[in-house]
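Entry 14. Structure prediction run on the chain below.
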Amino acid sequence: MGVFFINWITSLEGPTRNLLLRTTIFFVYLIAGATIFKFLEADNGIQEREDYHRIKIEMQLRYGINDTSFNEFIRRIKFAVDDGYSEHSDFDRWSFFGALFFAATVVTTIGYGHLAPRTFGGQLFCMIYAFFGIPITGLMLKSFGERLMDTIDMLIVIADKKVFKVKEERGTALRTSLILFMIMASMILVLAGVSMRYEGWTYFEGVYFAFITLSTIGFGDFVPTTPHVALHDYTHAHVALFVFISFIYITMGLSVVSSVLVSISRIFEVKTEWDFISLKEDYDEYDDENDNDAGFSSPYALEEKLRQQEPPQKFFLNQ
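Output returned:
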């Protein structure tokens, strides 16, 4: 059944095949991910619920708290945590640097969720700010990524010709993607080390935070705004500097990730043996045929078509 479905899709032409094939891959990938996440996290989720109910009963028995009071207490604690409060950090989250970091999470679509506007004016402005800021940020990251990719392409070509004496360009797109991926991996590892030092996380937690951040997923379970309680000598200036440096580094990392995604897309757009994904050439040919049939040919194509038709016309007139 699956083979028949794939053969039916690949027998189609043009954008219809692209749409059906890529949609199928998306849903298959989605279902596979859901299955694996359920397998990995379901038992832990059950354990967390059991722990919560056990602690709730212990506190109610110890302090004589009924369900209504306990739920109100939990709600207020959750509200305070969502506002950015922690037991070892009482600095103003809405200072300039805090607001700068929040604005960066908005326009980059990271959205940690640890800090959000509560006032009507703040929420209204957040929507307007994001509406215009996200496209602006996307264009900036795309331009930076394309420039970085083009620079690496040029360096690879120069190295092939000058150092390795290679006359033909081979695999430039793939090598560029590998180099960009190594740069991205290096930035993730460095950011993980810094997070381990200043946030008190494990190295793996730092790697997890860096990847979730630079991929703009931004769960908010790890946020670089509160130096670890073990660092007793930090001041508000240290916190502001740390947040500002994190903002700059994350912005650079997003640009590198953007270039990686662009380079990977470029690989899939090349006509290779991966025809089940690489459909760009067929799509272009389909567009060209439709454009010619509809009369939307470019001036150069129209001129070439007339030139090819000219000899038969002259022969007919000579007769």
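The CA atoms of residues 224 and 243 lie 7 Å apart.
Filed with the rest of this week's runs.
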